[in-house]
Amino acid sequence: MSRVKGFYFRQIAAFVILGLVIIGCVPSESMAYIVDSDAIKDAASTRAADMESVQRVLESKVVSGRLEKMGLSMSEIKARLDKLSDAELHRFASQVNSLLPGGQLEIIIALLVIAILVILILQLTGRRVVVK
């Protein structure tokens, strides 16, 4: 019995060592790489896309009316947006996108797919859910 345990222990130890060697051979993401011109173009297009999504939200009637009540004109808002860095603008655009109605469409679709899968599994296993 101890021979069997020793044999399995050696196999498991060999797999663990092999896994650690493989993980150790993978380079980390902290290495510096040369950036090509496409990455710079992508960064510029990302800023333009973020600016477009923020402008779309700011042009809605509800948001523009609220900003006017606070005493901000569109030219002041545009000037402040131009002063933001790329990272700040991206963070702001991702937060602003949640303000739009229906902005969480992916979550709704995921929940519907999960519900359909649960119903399908219940039907295939022959179980029923009874609500009293």
Summary of the model, kept short:
This protein has 132 residues and is an all-alpha fold. The chain has one domain (2-27, 36-125). It has six helices and no strands.
Low-confidence stretches: none
User: How many discrete domains?
Assistant: 1
- Helix and strand composition category: mainly alpha
The sequence of SSEs as H and E is HHHHHH
Helix content, binned percent: over 70%
Mean pLDDT: 76
What is the distance, rounded to the nearest whole angstrom, between the alpha carbons of the first and last residues?
55 Å
- Strand percent estimate: under 5%
Biggest sheet statistics: none
Q: Helical element count?
A: 6
Write a structural description.
The protein is mainly α and 132 residues long. It is built from six helices and no strands. It has helices at residues 2-25, 37-58, 61-69, 74-83, 86-97, 105-125. The protein is flat and about 80 Å long. 2% of the residues are buried.
Features:
single chain, mainly alpha, 0% strand
Topology:
Blueprint: H1 2-25, H2 37-58, H3 61-69, H4 74-83, H5 86-97, H6 105-125
Helix pairs in contact: 2-5
